[in-house]
Automatic annotation (TrEMBL), chain A:
The lineage of its organism: Eukaryota, Metazoa, Chordata, Craniata, Vertebrata. Keywords: Coiled coil, Protein transport, Transport. Belongs to the sorting nexin family. One of its GO terms (molecular function) is phosphatidylinositol binding. Residues 34-155 form the PX domain. It comes from the Eukaryota. This is SNX7 protein. Residues 307-334 form a coiled coil. InterPro entries: AH/BAR_dom_sf, BAR_SNX7, PX_dom, PX_dom_sf, PX_SNX7. It holds the Pfam family PX. One of its GO terms (biological process) is piecemeal microautophagy of the nucleus. PANTHER family: SORTING NEXIN-4 (PTHR45949), SORTING NEXIN-7 (PTHR45949:SF3).
UniProtKB/TrEMBL annotation, chain B:
Coiled coil: none annotated. PROSITE patterns: PX (PS50195). One of its GO terms (cellular component) is SNARE complex. CDD domains: BAR_SNX4, PX_SNX4. InterPro entries: AH/BAR_dom_sf, PX_dom, PX_dom_sf, PX_SNX4, SNX4, SNX4_BAR. Residues 12-140 form the PX domain. Gene3D superfamilies: Arfaptin homology (AH) domain/BAR domain, Phox-like domain. SMART domains: PX. This is SNX4 protein. Transmembrane segments: none annotated. GO terms for biological process: positive regulation of autophagosome assembly; protein transport. Keywords: Protein transport, Transport.
Length: 393, 402
C-alpha cells in the first residue's frame, strides 16, 4: 500500500495505521499502544409490523483489562448510535464529540435505503466509533463500553435507566435560556478567537464541500459523454481501409481514458467527499461545544451577580461558587486540550485527503499519457512500414 | 505535380476586415473581406524576392469561384469551402459570423481552400482561378461570361431525386454509399466531440473555485496557510489551462470538417456519373424504340401494341406515300440518335476514366490527411496529460506541506 509510504514522509510524529481498514485516522499514541479495534459492516434489513430499519454489525477487538472478553460482536441500529452520542455529550459537554451521519439526506434525492446511502452511512458510523476510540477521554466512557459489548436486550434496559426524556429536555431548555442571556461577558480571549475561527472555518468548509460535489458531478457528466465518443471511431473504421487501424487505435485509447476517469471519480467520492462532509458536521458540533462552555460560564457569572446583591448570605454561596468556578475551569481546560487535538487531526485529515486527490489526478493523467503514447508509437511503426514499401520499385 | 500552381506561387489569406457596403438590392450590410496575398516563387532566390500582390475578396466570391469549378470540372472532387455558418459549436464559441474566433478560423479555411485548388493537377491550371488570385476588378464579369450557370444541370441540385439507372458503374455506387457513411459518421463524431469539450471545460473551470476558497481559508490558518495558498494558485493554473487546450482541438475539428464537406463533393461526382448514365440509357432506349417503329412500318408487322397501330387497323391503313415519309423521318432520327449515342458513350467512358483517376488521387490525400489529423489529436492529448501531471505534481507538493 503505497499510501503508507507517503504518510511516513510527512513527519516523524505522525504514526501510521497498521490496519488498512482504519487508515483514515491518526493516532495520538503509537500503533503499539492502540488497544481497541472497531469495525462497522454487514448492513442488514429488518422488517417488523411497525417499521423497517437497518442494523449494522459492530465488531470490537481489544486487549484492555476492563473488558471481560477480547472480542465482541453486536448489532446496532442508527438510533443506538444517536443514543450513544447524546450520552457522551451529556457526560462531556465541552469535549468535541465526533459527528454522526445525518438522519436522512435531502439533497441528491438518495432513497432512504438505497445501497449507496447505506454504504455512505456505514462508513460514517465506522468513522464515528473509531474517532471515539481514539479520543483519550471518550474511549474510557462507560456508555461507550456498553454500546460495544452489550447484547440487544441489555442495551435496551440500560438505555431506560438514564435520566428520562423530560429531564433531558429540561436541560436543553435551560441551555437555550442561558444562551439567550448572552453568556459572553467574561469569556476568555482564547474562546472568542476559537469562535471567530469556527465561523470562518465553517463557511469555507461548506464551500469546499459544495465545490467538491460540483467537481464530482462535472467529472461524471464528462465520463458519460466520453462513453459515446470512443465507439464512433470504431464505427467509422468499418467504412475505411487504410486508416481503419488508426481509428480503432483512437477508439481504444478513448475507452481506456474513460475507465481512468471513472477511477478518478471513485477516488473523489471515497476519500475527499466523506471527509469534507464530516468537517461540515464538525463545524456545527464545535459551535455547539463553544456555546455549552459559554453556558457553564454563564451559570457561574449569574451566581456571582446574585451574590453581589446579597451581602448577608455570602458564606452559603461561596461554596457553591467555588464548585462552579471549578466546573468552569475543568470545562475550559477540557475544551482547550480537545481543541488542540481536533485542530491537529483536522490538519492531518485535510492534508491527507487533498494529497490523495492530487495523487488520484496524477494517476489519471499518467494512465492517459501512457495510453496515448503507446498509440503514437504504434502509428510511427506504421509510417515506417509505409515509407519502406514506397521505396521498393 | 511539377506544374501545379502551388509550387510556383506563394498564396496566403493573410487578413480579415469588417466592411460595410451596399449589396445588389441596395441594402446596407456588414460583411468580412479577406486579403489574398500572392508572390511568385523564384527558383533561385538569391536575396531577390518577388513583390507581393494582394487583393480583397469576400466569402460570396469564393462561393462563386467554387460553383464555377463544380460545373466546369464535374469529374473532379472539388475542394470544399469552410462552413458558411458556425456549426457543431460548444458553449464557449458563439455561432455569430462576426465573432473574431470564427472569422479567424474561416480565414485559415479559405487559405486552405486556395492551396488545395492550387495543388490540384487539373484545377490549378484554370484561368478563372488564376484571375481570382490576381485580378481584383472585373473578375465577377469574367466568371459570368463563361456562361457556366447555363451549363449547370439543375437536376444535380435535386439531392434526393433518384434516377433509375440500370447499369451504373458499381464502383460509383459503392463510392456514393461510402460518401454517405463518411458524412454521417463525421458529423456524429463532431457533435459528440463538442459535447465532450463542453464537459471537459466544466471539470477544469470548477477547480478554479478551489483557488479562491483556499486563499480565504489560509487567512485563518497558521501552519496550513502557506500550503493552502500555493495549492490554490496551482488550481487556478489548472483551470486556466483548458482554454488553450480546447482552442487547439478546434483546429482538429476543422480538419475533420473539411472531410465532412469533401464527402459532399465526392457524392456530387457520383451523382454526375449517375446522371450521365441515366441520359445514356434513356437515349439508348429511345433509339431502340425508334428502330423498332421503323422496322414495323417497313415490314407492316405490328409486334408491339400501339394506339396508332390500333387506330390504323380500325380506320384503315395509311397510304404507301405516307408510310414512306414516316420511315424517312425515322431513319434520319435514328441516324442522329446513333451518332448521339456514340458520343454520349464516349463521353461517359471518358468521364468514368478521368473521374476515377481523381478519385484515386483524392483517396490517397484523404488517407494521408486523416491519419495525420488522428496523430495530431493523440499529440494534443499527450500535451494535455503532461500539463495535468505538472500541475497536480505541484499541487501535491503544496498539499503535503499543509
Amino acid at each position: 500500500d503505497t499510501s503508507l509510504v507517503e504518510v511516513n514522509s510527512f513527519s516523524a510524529s505522525v504514526p501510521i495505521s497498521p490496519s488498512s481498514m482504519i487508515n483514515q485516522y491518526k493516532f495520538e499514541d503509537g500503533p503499539e499502544l492502540r488497544d481497541l479495534f472497531i469495525t462497522v459492516d454487514d448492513p442488514e434489513s429488518h422488517i417488523t409490523a411497525i417499521e423497517t430499519f437497518i442494523t449494522y454489525r459492530v465488531v470490537t477487538k481489544t486487549t484492555r483489562g476492563e473488558f471481560d472478553s477480547s472480542e465482541y460482536e453486536v448489532r446496532r441500529r442508527y438510533q443506538d448510535f444517536l443514543w450513544l452520542k447524546s450520552k457522551l455529550e451529556e457526560a462531556h459537554p465541552t469535549l468535541i464529540i465526533p459527528p454522526l451521519p445525518e438522519k436522512f439526506i435531502m439533497k441528491g434525492m438518495v432513497e432512504r435505503f438505497s445501497d449507496e446511502f447505506i454504504e455512505t452511512r456505514r462508513k460514517a458510523l465506522h468513522k464515528f466509533l473509531n474517532r471515539i476510540a481514539d479520543h483519550p477521554t471518550l474511549t474510557f466512557n462507560e456508555d461507550f463500553k456498553i454500546f460495544l459489548t452489550a447484547q440487544a436486550w441489555e442495551l435496551s434496559s440500560h438505555k431506560k435507566q438514564g435520566p428520562g426524556l423530560l429531564s433531558r429536555m429540561g436541560q436543553t431548555v435551560r441551555a437555550v435560556a442561558s444562551s439567550v442571556r448572552g453568556a459572553v461577558k467574561n469569556r476568555p480571549e482564547m474562546f472568542t478567537e476559537m469562535n471567530n475561527y469556527m465561523e470562518t472555518f465553517s463557511q469555507k468548509i461548506t464551500l469546499l464541500d459544495k465545490i467538491a460535489h460540483r467537481i464530482y458531478k462535472e467529472e461524471r457528466d464528462y465520463f458519460n459523454e466520453m462513453k459515446e465518443y470512443g465507439p464512433i471511431h470504431t464505427l467509422w473504421s468499418a467504412s475505411e481501409e487504410d486508416i481503419a487501424d488508426s481509428l480503432k487505435g483512437i477508439a481504444s485509447c478513448i475507452d481506456r481514458c474513460c475507465k481512468a476517469t471513472e477511477r478518478r471519480m471513485a477516488g473523489l467520492s471515497e476519500h475527499l467527499l466523506p471527509i469534507l462532509h464530516e468537517y461540515v458536521l464538525y463545524s456545527e458540533i464545535l459551535m455547539g461545544v463553544l456555546k455549552r462552555r459559554d453556558q457553564i460560564q454563564g451559570e457561574l457569572d449569574s451566581k456571582v451577580d446574585t451574590l453581589a446583591n446579597k451581602k448577608t448570605e455570602k458564606d452559603l454561596f461561596s461554596e457553591e461558587i467555588g464548585k462552579l468556578e471549578d466546573k468552569v475551569e475543568r470545562a475550559n481546560n477540557a475544551l482547550k486540550a480537545d481543541w488542540d487535538r481536533w485542530k491537529q487531526n483536522m490538519q492531518w485529515d485535510m492534508r491527507s485527503s487533498f494529497t490523495n486527490v492530487a495523487e488520484n489526478n496524477l494517476r489519471y493523467y499518467e494512465e492517459c499519457l501512457a495510453t496515448w503514447e503507446s498509440f503514437l508509437a504504434s502509428q510511427s511503426v506504421d509510417l515506417h512500414v509505409e515509407e519502406d514499401s514506397e521505396d521498393r520499385p | 505535380m511539377e506544374d501545379c500552381l502551388a509550387k510556383k506561387m506563394e498564396i496566403t489569406v493573410s487578413e480579415a476586415e469588417k466592411r460595410t457596403g451596399r449589396n445588389a438590392m441596395n441594402i446596407q450590410e456588414t460583411y468580412t473581406a479577406y486579403l489574398i496575398e500572392t508572390r511568385a516563387v523564384e527558383s533561385q532566390s538569391e536575396g531577390q524576392c518577388a513583390p507581393v500582390e494582394s487583393l480583397w475578396r469576400r466569402y460570396s466570391e469564393f462561393e462563386l469561384l467554387r460553383n464555377y469549378l463544380l460545373v466546369t470540372y464535374p469529374h473532379i472532387v472539388v475542394p470544399p469551402l469552410p462552413e458558411k455558418r458556425a456549426d457543431f459549436v460548444w458553449h464557449k464559441l458563439s455561432a455569430d459570423n462576426m465573432d473574431p474566433d470564427f472569422v479567424e478560423r474561416r480565414r485559415i479555411g479559405l487559405e486552405n481552400f486556395l492551396l488545395r485548388v492550387a495543388s490540384h493537377p487539373v484545377l490549378c491550371q484554370d484561368k478563372i482561378f488564376y484571375a481570382f488570385l490576381t485580378q481584383e476588378s472585373g473578375w465577377k464579369e469574367m466568371v459570368n461570361e463563361t456562361g457556366f450557370q447555363l451549363k449547370a444541370d439543375s437536376r444535380l441540385k435535386a439531392l434526393n431525386a433518384t434516377f433509375r439507372v440500370k447499369n451504373p458503374d458499381k464502383r460509383f455506387t459503392e463510392l456514393k454509399h461510402y460518401s454517405d457513411e463518411l458524412q454521417s459518421v463525421i458529423s456524429h463524431l463532431l457533435r459528440v466531440r463538442a459535447r465532450v469539450a463542453d464537459r471537459l471545460y466544466g471539470v477544469y473551470k470548477v477547480h478554479g473555485n478551489y483557488g479562491r476558497v483556499f486563499s480565504e481559508w489560509s487567512a485563518i490558518e497558521k501552519e496550513m496557510g502557506d500550503g493552502l495558498q500555493s495549492a490554490g494558485h496551482h488550481m487556478d493554473v489548472y483551470a486556466a489551462s483548458i482554454d488553450d487546450i480546447l482552442e487547439e482541438e478546434e483546429h482538429y475539428a476543422d480538419q475533420l470538417k473539411e472531410y465532412l464537406f469533401y464527402a459532399e463533393a465526392l457524392r456530387a461526382v457520383c451523382r454526375k456519373h449517375e446522371l450521365m448514365q441515366y441520359d445514356l440509357e434513356t437515349a439508348a432506349q429511345d433509339l431502340t424504340s425508334k428502330k423498332q417503329q421503323c422496322e414495323e412500318l417497313a415490314t407492316g408487322t405490328v409486334r408491339t401494341f400501339s394506339l396508332k397501330g390500333m387506330t390504323s387497323k380500325l380506320f384503315g391503313q395509311e397510304t404507301p406515300e405516307q408510310r414512306e415519309a414516316k420511315i424517312k423521318v425515322l431513319e434520319e432520327q435514328i441516324q442522329e440518335g446513333e451518332e448521339q449515342l456514340k458520343s454520349k458513350n464516349l463521353e461517359g467512358r471518358d468521364f468514368v476514366k478521368s473521374a476515377w483517376a481523381d478519385i484515386e488521387r483524392f483517396k490517397e490525400q484523404k488517407n494521408h490527411d486523416l491519419k495525420e489529423a488522428l496523430i495530431s489529436y493523440a499529440v494534443m492529448q499527450i500535451s494535455m496529460c503532461k500539463k495535468g501531471i505538472q500541475v497536480w505534481t505541484n499541487a501535491k507538493e503544496c498539499f503535503s506541506k499543509m
